[in-house]
Amino acid sequence: MRTSHARPFHLMILVPLLLVGCTAAAKNSTMIAPGDQSLPAWVMNPAGAYPEIRYMSAVGTGRALDMSEADALNKLARRFSVLLQSRETQLDDYQAQMGASVDGTQWERTTSLLADIQLSTDQQLLNAQIAERFKDDQGMFYALAVLERIPTARLYAEQMRINRQLAEAHYKAAMETPAGHKFSRLAHLRTARLAVSAYEDLRQVHDVLVGHRPDLTLGDPDFAAIKTAFAEARETITARLIWDRDVPPAMRAEIPAVLNKLGVTTVDAGPCDLVLRVNYLVNLRNSEQYAVVYADWRITVAVRDQADRRQIATLTYASQDGGANRAGALRQAERQAIRLVAASLPHDLTEALYNDEAL
Would you give the DSSP letter of residue 20? Predict the structure, then answer.
């Protein structure tokens, strides 16, 4: 369990939404037919009724209507995922042949779409819907899920436009921020970086739907410049660590490593931007009933802005572990505490430092 008392974070970034839409169906859904009917043509050949140039489609089956509809939507999602993965492979192959820095082409990508979207069998696509339903004389249900390409692509293009404007506005604000206001500059750059990453993901979805890039007259945001500026600005941050007496040596080694991965340089003395005070508390309890020693532990990381002595955040991580004896309980608690800090501190510290209150 972890809790954080930090300045609120309200960044609004539009990213690809993989939920069933509520727009009108492409065609009126067929009523479920009584028995003694042959299968409709769309079951075997959905492209005959819903041409591929205009629609993406998939047929699902099941012993109940809702099962057939879920099957159809899941198959459509899997098909879309395969198309996205195929496009990623094409882009990677193209870059391998032409070089990593192919400027000004629709093939250049700097983010991985699949890592962010992660389409799976229990997710549906934005704007997907059930267009046809049928029940045969054996009690089997059939459903046809369709996705109309152009209207759906327009939804993604609009989200692209919003994210592009957000990225460009915050990048400009960052460049105009005085060098001494490090956290404000980083907050702007982080917002710009997230927005442009979402833009890239949306663009790939759009391209799969329509086969070409949208007509956005202002052009793409400069993702490379934003990413570089963010990395360079973050690497100017320095931090000094203050350890309370009971912090174990392994944790004293782990936290500086976490900070270094974030681009924050740790210093032992002299001027710095941040001061992090780390406290580790363990309470041991014997359980005669279960012949075990429980260890209730808590780590607290107090984060202070050294420039104005403000407390930026207090990050707390706590849980319970145990062992056959006191030494075993202490070892287990320490391992789990270090593991949780390594996994959670990078995100929590980033949220505390580079949020919208720093703007």
Answer: B
SS3 302: strand
Helices (H), 8-147: 41-44, 46-49, 65-98, 113-117
Q: What is the pLDDT of residues 154-174, one digit of tens each?
A: 888 888 888 888 899 999 999
Distance CA 278, CA 232 (A): 27
Could you identify the residue written with the tokens 């249900």? 141
> CB–CB of 315/343 below 8 Å?
no
CA distances from 264 to 8, 105, 170, 188, 191 (A): 22, 34, 22, 17, 18
Locate the DSSP E strands across 211-325.
238-243, 265-266, 274-287, 292-305, 310-323
* Partners of residue 2 on adjacent β-strands: 317
DSSP codes joined into one string, 130-164: EEEEEE-TTS-EEEEEEEEHHHHHHHHHHHHHHHH
Question: Is the whole model's pTM more than 0.85, yes or no?
Answer: no
